[in-house]
Design a protein that fits this description.
Structural class of chain A: mainly alpha
Order of helices and strands of chain B: HHHHHH
Number of helices of chain A: 10
Largest interface: A-B, 13 and 15 residues
Distance between the termini of chain B: 70 Å
Largest sheet of chain A: 3 strands, mixed
Shape of chain B: elongated
Radius of gyration of chain B: 23 Å
Strand order of the largest sheet of chain A: 6-5-7
Structural class of chain B: mainly alpha
Radius of gyration of chain A: 21 Å
Oligomer: heterodimer
Number of strands of chain A: 7
Order of helices and strands of chain A: HHHHEEHHHHEEEEHHE
Helix content of chain A: 40-55%
Strand content of chain A: 5-15%
Strand content of chain B: under 5%
Largest sheet of chain B: none
Number of helices of chain B: 6
Helix content of chain B: 55-70%
Number of strands of chain B: 0
């Protein structure tokens, strides 16, 4: 009788506990993609990387015109030159990356087992510089964005492939990024989720809101508003400023975890970076 | 003497230029600010607040670059005959509508004073 009671209790508890366990990143990915597939049945998952230009024919046409001579091409050329210019010790960035840094941008950010933290491509570039006795570059724009533009261009067409290892630390980083994405911040109490999930496709002021899934595929990007290139963390900071919130500092654990989660949810979508936005 | 006289005239010239500058400045900039912030009617001030805070998401007659996130402001007095209800939504929609609404808590987070909320509602009721 006692045994029966224990079995029944275990059975009931298993149902009670199940909802408390977080969905796995893979389950999240399927659920999120299905959400947008259902919301925008005419758009393929690849289309989602076109962001706001999916929702306004006039802007799409202007964007297509701009893409005849993409303004990011200068950055790709510059970035290639920077990437291949030897450091004082004679080595180049290629010495720090697998496959000499070619065709790997679509796998960043990565979870770095040795540090137990997320490592962005920008951080990996600066780590490479420090390792070779060079001063780190300023994050967000400028030279580092150009190098990233070149590296991204060598990954163009490859599907985003962010791995979340099945370890407590990696899963915690993923969950933290997810929490940040869904947390309201600032006086207007907006979360990233507020604009780019249920409200995606709608207009805020004169602009259509892009879908969360697909956004990370086109960074770094040339934005007309910036008049130059910027990394995804530059865009996050701009977004946070726009909603009146205090931006999270670039390359902090929180910002990197956000980039980790946000890029992961574009897994399976071809990289189309560098990109152009106005 | 002549030199001093010239200097005096020069000084007068500068005074005139500064005076004209001040007149132009107040005509172009200061007066409209006064007009928008102080001398207009509550409904007119409510319209300015609506353009500033609401049109990002709601469209209405007179809006420019309006958003489509929220419902358009039409027939407001018919849709919200209970002024208290509208006041509560503007103050804290997460409480008055639903916890997950995207609408910011304009009153609770201090975007609008009680007086401004009433002015905004006065304007909404004209739509």
């Amino acid at each position: 009788m006692k045994r029966l009671f224990v079995v029944m209790l275990a059975f009931i508890l298993s149902f009670a506990i199940t909802p408390m366990v977080n969905a796995s990143p893979q389950e999240d990915l399927i659920a999120y993609k299905n959400y947008f597939k259902k919301k925008f049945p005419k758009l393929s998952v690849v289309d989602l990387s076109n962001g706001m230009y999916n929702f306004n024919a006039d802007k799409r046409s202007q964007w297509d015109d701009i893409m005849s001579f993409p303004p990011y091409e200068i950055a790709i050329d510059e970035g290639k030159q920077f990437f291949n210019t030897p450091f004082i010790n004679g080595k180049t960035y290629a010495s720090c990356f697998v496959n000499s840094g070619v065709g790997i941008a679509h796998t960043y950010p990565r979870f770095d087992k040795s540090s137990g933290k997320v490592k962005t491509l920008a951080a990996a570039l600066n780590e490479c510089r420090i390792k070779n006795n060079e001063k780190p570059l300023r994050y967000l724009k400028g030279k580092i964005a150009s190098i990233m533009a070149y590296m991204a261009d060598t990954s163009r067409g490859k599907v985003i492939k962010i791995e979340v290892p099945n370890t407590l630390a990696a899963l915690a980083a993923y969950e933290d990024g997810k929490r940040i994405y869904f947390t309201r911040r600032g006086p207007r109490a907006f979360a990233c989720y507020s604009c780019h999930w249920e409200a995606a496709g709608q207009k805020i002021r004169g602009n259509e809101l892009s879908t969360a899934v697909g956004q990370a595929t086109h960074f770094p990007s040339y934005r007309s508003k910036w008049g130059g290139m910027g990394t995804i963390q530059r865009r996050y900071k701009g977004c946070m400023k726009n909603i009146g919130a205090k931006p999270i500092k670039e390359q902090t654990e929180a910002m990197n975890n956000l980039e980790y989660f946000h890029t992961f949810i574009s897994n399976g979508i071809p990289m189309n970076a560098p990109g152009t936005r106005f | 003497m002549n030199r001093g006289h010239t200097h005096h005239e020069h000084g007068q010239g500068i005074t005139l230029v500064v005076l004209w500058g001040l007149i132009v400045f107040f005509t172009l900039f200061a007066l409209p600010i006064q007009a928008t912030e102080k001398s207009k009617t509550p409904i007119a001030r409510g319209e300015i607040l609506t353009l500033k805070l609401c049109q990002a998401c709601h469209t209405f007659d007179g809006a420019n670059q309006a958003g489509t996130l929220g419902p358009p402001f039409i027939s407001m007095s018919q849709r919200f005959p209970n002024r208290e209800r509208l006041r509560n939504i503007i103050h804290d929609p997460q409480k008055a509508i639903k916890p997950h609404t995207m609408m910011p808590p304009f009153g609770r987070h201090g975007f609008l004073s009680k007086k401004q909320t009433e002015e905004l509602i006065d304007f909404l009721y004209t739509l």
